[in-house]
């Protein structure tokens, strides 16, 4: 599974995206969420099982839609 360092790195990406949203920098938040998705994909299936990966990506994609990313 994901080790503590990998989990912390993924969590930091999401925290950074949240700070961007709170600072009304949606484009920056979109970029950070997309990077999060890429990183989750790179860690699958070796460190993140596909069901967990699918859940994380689905939730991140829902955030992208809610932020209007790519619109």
User: From N to C, what is the helix and strand string?
Assistant: HHH
What is the helical fraction, as a range of percent? over 70%
Name the shape in a single word. globular
Strand content: under 5%
Extract low-pLDDT stretches.
Answer: none
Sheet having the most strands? none
Strand elements, count = 0
Describe the structure in your own words.
- The protein is mainly alpha-helical and 71 residues long.
- It has helices spanning 4-22, 26-43, 50-67.
- The longest helix is centred in the first third of the chain and has 19 residues, at 4-22.
How is the secondary structure organized here?
Elements: H1 4-22, H2 26-43, H3 50-67
Short description:
By secondary structure, the chain is an all-alpha fold.
Throw out a few tags for this protein.
71 residues, single chain, mainly alpha
